């Protein structure tokens, strides 16, 4: 599967700008980690891009719709990683790809939320302030803090270094991401 094919699948199931941006940010972070670790960048990027592809169209069946579609296309490793991207689903983590996706999903979304309440967005954002916001349960309350912790642990990364890495990746793409400001009360 090519990235363009993956993008077409995503856009057929997802119209929400925030979900499309989330897919893109996780794609960018997964690609960067693949580069860093010498892994297959296209495979990792596609896993990041498609991990929530069916969430808007089929919320009660997520992630089964996208996983089944990936199985049909012979994309077994990506399908498995997506089927395992939430620890409460009880799917075993068999590969570094599986562990990377769980480690990057929630925290990338959280970092974007942190950037959106700052006047300078990603510019100057530091892991220290992200970690402080993680301790504030009312901020981005839908982000599962335990999932963030477990993801970093499974992936074998220090949470601060992980956050720094993600911020750095997102900063390199900030013009494309065009993070819109949101009021802190909306997060």
Automatic annotation (TrEMBL):
Coiled coil: none
All residue ranges annotated as the HD/PDEase domain in the record: 15-119
Protein keywords: Hydrolase
SUPFAM superfamilies: HD-domain/PDEase-like (SSF109604)
InterPro entries: HD/PDEase_dom (IPR003607), HD_domain (IPR006674)
One Gene Ontology molecular-function label: hydrolase activity
One matching Pfam family: HD
Name assigned to this protein: Predicted hydrolase, HD superfamily
Highest classification ranks of the organism: Bacteria, Pseudomonadati, Bacteroidota, Cytophagia, Cytophagales
């Amino acid at each position: 599967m090519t990235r363009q094919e993956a993008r077409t699948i995503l856009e057929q199931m997802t119209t929400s700008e925030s979900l499309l941006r989330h897919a893109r940010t996780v794609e960018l972070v997964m690609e960067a980690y693949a580069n860093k670790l010498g892994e297959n960048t296209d495979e990792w990027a596609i896993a990041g891009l498609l991990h929530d592809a069916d969430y808007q169209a089929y919320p009660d069946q997520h992630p089964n719709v996208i996983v089944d579609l990936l199985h049909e296309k012979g994309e077994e490793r990506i399908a498995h990683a997506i089927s395992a991207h939430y620890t409460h689903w009880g799917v075993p983590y068999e590969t570094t790809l599986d562990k990377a996706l769980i480690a990057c999903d929630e925290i990338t979304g959280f970092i974007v939320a942190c950037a959106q309440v700052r006047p300078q967005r990603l510019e100057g954002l530091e892991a220290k302030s992200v970690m402080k916001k993680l301790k504030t349960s009312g901020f981005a309350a839908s982000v599962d803090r335990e999932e963030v912790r477990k993801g970093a642990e499974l992936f074998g990364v220090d949470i601060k270094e992980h956050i720094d890495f993600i911020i750095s990746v997102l900063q390199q793409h900030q013009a494309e991401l065009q993070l819109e400001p949101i009021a802190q009360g909306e997060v």
